[in-house]
Amino acid sequence: MAEPVTLRAITDHNRSAVLGLRVAAGQEGVVDGVARSLRDAAEHPELAPWPRAVYAGERPVGFVMLADGVAEGNSDVPWPFYLWRMLIDGRFQGRGHGRAALDAVVAHLRSRPGARELVTSVVPGEGSPLGFYLRYGFADTGKMFDHERVPRLAL
Ligand SMILES: CC(C)(COP(=O)(O)OP(=O)(O)OC[C@H]1O[C@@H](n2cnc3c(N)ncnc32)[C@H](O)[C@@H]1OP(=O)(O)O)[C@@H](O)C(=O)NCCC(=O)NCCS
User: Fold this and answer.
1) What is the 73 CA–ligand 1 centroid distance (Å)?
2) Most CB within 10 Å of its CB: which of 39, 105, 106, 141?
3) Residue 138's domain spans which residues?
4) Structurally, how many domains does the chain consist of?
5) Ligand 1: does its nearest atom lie under 6 Å from the Cβ of 22?
6) pLDDT tens digits for range 84-123
């Protein structure tokens, strides 16, 4: 049976392992890494960052970060709940961990009052993860945000 996938807080205990996660060669252009994401989180408390390590069993395999309750009128992120970053380390891709991590994100959001949709934005073109989100059930809104496509999942 597949190992259960969980989302865990980043602490002194796991930070260096999580910082060591890398996408596969050639994928660096589609997502910023963990270190940059944690810096962005520290610099933007107004975006209510919710960074989490993705674990398969007891092994860190990826990273997700939500903007988890953005106040209306924010000009950087115009949605209350935004999947800001997501990556599965290249060594562990293609095993269902990305889908399971999204399941855990959705379960978290369903506990958040007023969460009706999850929006993300993806680099289009070669190597784009757009297909991954569409396969999960996101719909392509056809809109662009910062030159990225905007998939949306109703919760
Ligand atoms: C995109 C990513 C998160 C997917 O994680 P993963 O663990 O490899 O995906 P899964 O194994 O859970 O795949 C789930 C399904 O999506 C499909 N899928 C995965 N990546 C895909 C892609 N880039 N395009 C189209 N479909 C994709 C899989 O084939 C699988 O389909 P199935 O249900 O028919 O089996 C991961 O590949 C990744 O980190 N990529 C690089 C960084 C990135 O693009 N991050 C997202 C930034 S917005």
Assistant:
1) 32
2) 105
3) 5-154
4) 1
5) no
6) 999 999 999 999 999 999 999 999 999 999 999 999 999 9
